[in-house]
Design brief:
mainly alpha
Length: 100
């Protein structure tokens, strides 16, 4: 589904481009080419950041039906302060916003 496409294409592009930038960085460091090292910072930040953000996303997913609503704590308190129906009401509202 959409997660397979997201992983195989979008996230993979960050990884591929990060690997290319890392190879260029290794070559620039070997040559002592400060200009090239500095010039690679944007590609390293963008692709490295994209890779890290997607890795966090994948690591925080769980199988359908296995998510757990917190029984207490700051997150539960914040949700209940905003949505009188708690997590169920929040899911409905956020779901409606993302579909619309």
């Amino acid at each position: 589904g959409s997660h397979q496409i997201h992983h195989s294409k979008h996230h993979n592009t960050y990884v591929t481009n990060l690997n290319v930038a890392m190879e260029k960085l290794d070559a620039a460091v070997s040559k002592g080419d400060a200009g090239a090292i500095i010039g690679l910072q944007g590609a390293l930040k963008f692709n490295g950041g994209g890779h890290l953000n997607h890795t966090l996303f994948w690591e925080n997913l769980c199988p359908k039906g296995e998510s757990v609503v917190p029984s207490g704590g700051a997150l539960k308190d914040a949700v209940e302060a905003r949505w009188s129906g708690g997590f169920e009401e929040m899911k409905k509202e956020v779901g409606a916003m993302s579909v619309g």
